[in-house]
Design a protein that fits this description.
7 helices, 7 strands, seven-stranded mixed beta sheet, alpha/beta, globular, binds S-adenosylmethionine
């Protein structure tokens, strides 16, 4: 039985952040092919907006597409740290978002960053580099505060996946679902989203 008055399609606020178009143009010029898609951006913006003074960590800035959506949801007291190993791609984000005092750009290997960052320091972690997702997962989760949200995308097949990567994805999802310390959901939506919340306490 269907109710025709009930919306049956996903509805998202896709209003783009002010800097998105400039960053997308520069991303295309650079030929960077690993940028997050708009649906993921809209979800990230909602998550950033859900917690006052949210402390966000992004692993893998790329050119700053997701960074831009995250910043758009963050309130004035929020803070965003974004880590990238490649200074060329991160420079695109710095040009368009560097004016914003809420953001800190870190040019560093995420592995080393996670080893030295304070534990439980972040309310929201967008793990968008291989380390913190397919390796060093426990290091990433140790940076999450109680009640915090860890999110990854690109779990559906992507052109940018290196050889051998496809086999790792179901293993990652199964391992996450089996953990007792997290509440985990996986959606075959957008580019493939997994969201995990660390129990408060
Ligand atoms: C999927 S892309 C990030 C896309 C970006 N977050 C966005 O939404 O458009 C992954 C990024 O992680 C970076 N990366 C890969 N290995 C890394 C490492 N060990 N430490 C930090 N960044 C790394 C890559 O250079 C690349 O820019």
């Amino acid at each position: 039985m269907s109710d025709s008055s009930f919306p049956d399609r996903n509805r998202l606020d896709m209003t783009p952040p002010a800097q998105l178009q400039a960053i997308e143009t520069a991303t295309r010029t650079l030929g960077f092919g690993m940028a997050s898609v708009p649906q993921t951006g809209a979800l990230l913006r909602s998550l950033a907006a859900a917690k006052p003074a949210c402390r966000i960590l992004e692993l893998g800035t790329g050119t700053g597409i997701a960074t831009c959506w995250l910043l758009d949801g963050l309130d004035d007291d929020g803070r965003l740290v974004t880590v990238e190993i490649d200074p060329v791609v991160q420079q695109v984000a710095k040009i368009d978002l560097g004016y914003d005092a809420r953001i800190s750009f870190v040019e560093q290997d995420a592995v080393s960053f996670m080893q030295h960052a304070p534990r439980s320091a972040f309310d929201l972690i967008f793990a968008d580099a291989l380390p913190g997702k397919f390796s060093e997962l426990d290091d990433a989760l140790s940076l999450l505060a109680n009640g915090g949200v860890y999110i990854v995308d690109d779990l559906l097949p992507q052109d940018s996946w290196p050889d051998g990567h496809a086999e790792k994805v179901p293993v990652f999802i199964d391992n996450m679902m089996a953990r007792g310390d997290l509440v985990v959901e996986y959606w075959e939506w957008s580019s493939g989203i997994l969201l995990a919340r660390k129990s408060g306490g």
